[in-house]
Amino acid sequence: MVGTFYRSPAPDEAAFVEVGDSIRRGQTVCIIEAMKLMNELEAEANGEIVEILVSNGEPVEYGQPLMRINPSN
What we know:
0% of the residues lie in helices and 44% in strands.
């Protein structure tokens, strides 16, 4: 296990993104907690969130896909 996947900045706050949302490069899409450090992951491309592959609070590994996006320009 590398870390824990979180969809929102805090349990009582809204998720960073939902399926169908448009995202832009550099936008925070989730947090991975590793060794008590919260690491914000940013979108690498503009596009639309098509699928979120990991549940909130689920352990994740290196190289594991977290979301699928349909890239746009």
